[in-house]
Model the fold of this input.
Amino acid sequence: MRRKAGLILLALAVFFAALSPLVRWYAFPRLAKIPANQYQDMVLEAKDATLLDYGTMKARKVSKVTIVQTLKGNVEASEKIEATAGKDVVVWDGLSYVVGPDGKMVSKIPERYIFDAHTQEPVHATGEMVDGDPVKRQGIEFKWPFLTEKRDYEYFDAQARVTAPIHYKGTQNFRGVDVYYFEQTIPWTKVKFPRTMPVEGITPESVAKTGTTRWYTTVRKFWVEPLTGAPVYGEEIHKEELRGGTLLGGRDKVTAFAGHVKMREDYIDSTVDLVKSNRTLVLLMTSYLPWGFLILGLLLLSLSLYLEARGRRPGDPEPTRNTDPEPVSA
Done:
């Protein structure tokens, strides 16, 4: 019985030892994915900001500018792209909607972001765009990959339509969560006017005829939980200017918007809670289960060897053998 039990334990030990790397290196890349139907929204605020009054074309101080950012998974579009891409793809239809202190729209910029569900690498397909303009993203946007590393990444800036490094600046603790801090600076860059302008009757084409151009710079900051790759907090020191042309009445430039944009407090709390729960799931696949199965396999192996050794202890009586009697010699 001991020998039979030892063989069973040995088989289980081999099974769990083999299961350990399979969970980490086979199951995790296939199961850890962004859901195709995910919907999320975020509210950011810039208090004591500077905003252009398009009625007078003068910059003025305002109490607050609010930015509502939504990301909605487009399941139908992702399924169409997956049919030819050969991988799980997520399509996010995003909208950045900016309103002033009076609740009136300042700008709204839609975009479609298409990416690999596990790696978060961009997937180039028809429909990828920012504010109606086709783009071909390089680098990440919105989310870092699972198991984020302590290194610089390429990050796509939707305003300037460029990709630039976002630098790893160190590890911090943010509200009880260990995070990696990243920072990116986009220098003053000439950018397009939004297709939807805040004043009825004014279009990007009519502004372009005046010779006035729009310029933008920002310092982008993210605090990223490394296991999930999800930002738990973000800020931007954001500035926009209109330069030259007859629209400014002889002035060289005027501030269109300037402010320190931060996540609203209630959204910080909900984001941290969500990331904490998802972090546990990633730990389960990358650490708890692989190490647990490996340790269990070693324990079962040890128990199997112990039972085998007990079955062969020295000093046990030899089994009785039936022998024929020896012939008696005369």
User: Anything to note?
Assistant: DSSP finds four helices and twelve strands in the chain.
